[in-house]
Amino acid sequence: MTLTPAPEPVVPRPGPEIRPTAVGHRAPESAYGPDADADADADARPGPDTGPGRDLDLGPDTGPGPLLPRAVCEAALTALLLFLIVTAVRWLVGPDSGAAAARPAVLGAVVGTLLALFMVSPPGRCSGGHLNPAVTLALWRLGVFPGREVVPYAVAQLAGSVFGVWCAGLVWGPVTGRPPVRHASVRADPAWGDAAVLAAEAGVLAGSTLMLAVLLASPGGRRVLPYAVGLTTALVIGVLGPLSGGSANPARQFGPALLAGDTGRLWVYVLGPALGAVLGAWLAGRTGLRRPGLRRPAR
Fold it and tell me: What is the 3-state secondary structure (H, E, C) of 254-293?
């Protein structure tokens, strides 16, 4: 009898596993396991924190909507913000308040709180809650807002500023147009020249833009962003209000200055924040603070 040796068992060679699917073979799995593939796919898909209506991660999960409703939300929120600012100034420094000068810390706390609330409100989630042309410009330069929508947003914000101040005058009467209220128009200390005010306004927006770049770089940062913006605004008004005026928002000064006829330094309060936004975004790019891998929206 001839002894035939038993066949040697087949040992599978190490390598990527090929699993059949309904339409052929699945691609080899990642060397890091199926979870790594799932993570890679999730990273490749556009998430809820991208898109023109989601600059501050406050937009709806369905993505950005048409431009017109978002611009209307920006105009309405800016109008309401300026209405409430004029109201606060009227009762803080008006003739019935018994105070001869504004209380910047109180006004800063009010404005900062309003900003945070507006940003997380449904209209704020719809539009992104900028309420500031310089912020819109900064977000575009950071690559999270389409350039073609910067001008419509800025026009909506400036128009809302004028409308809100006008409505406050209708509600509270002529007292809002007379000193010391003057439609809540900000004024710098006489010792501060145009160059100093311009530098202060630009510096505030440059720092704020860097803060935006840092917070937008992580989900945790985006969650606290509205409150960080509110706190920063409160500090700017409280500290710089008696010195440079502490506007840091072209829309904050645009409506009050126009209706109060106080346009002599309006260009400073418009140009300064705009320059600061561009400078801050440039610094964010140079220092690597801008979010890596972020796709710049279409211009």
Answer: HHHHHHHCCCCCHHHHHHHHHHHHHHHHHHHHHHCCCCCC
Name which of 214, 169, 212, 188 is nearest 268 in CA terms: 188
> Distance between CA 192 and CA 245 in Å, rounded?
10
Type and span of the H or E element at 110? helix 104-120
- Closest C-alpha to 102, from 203, 204, 185: 185
Query: First-to-last CA distance in the chain?
Result: 86
Angle CA 233–237–243, to nearest 5: 145
Helices (H) and strands (E) in the chain, counts: 10, 2
pTM of the model: 0.77
The whole-angstrom separation of Cα 271 and Cα 198 is: 8
Residue with tokens 């809302």: 160
pLDDT in tens, 254-283: 999 999 999 999 999 999 999 999 999 999
Give the CA distances from residue 119 to residues 22, 113, 132, 157, 224, in Å, rounded to whole numbers and listed in that order.
47, 10, 12, 14, 11
Tokens 């898109």, residue? 51
**Percentages (nearest 5) of helix, strand, coil residues in the chain:** 60, 0, 35
Nearest 5°: the CA angle 288, 210, 158 is 135
CA 193 to each of CA 4, 203, 243, 272: distance values in angstroms, whole numbers, following the listed order:
104, 15, 11, 13
Q: For residues 27-57, b (16+ Cβ closer than 10 Å) or e, as one string?
A: eeeeeeeeeeeeeeeeeeeeeebbbbbbbbb
Q: What is the pLDDT of residues 87-136, one digit of tens each?
A: 999 988 866 555 545 488 999 999 999 999 999 999 999 999 999 999 99
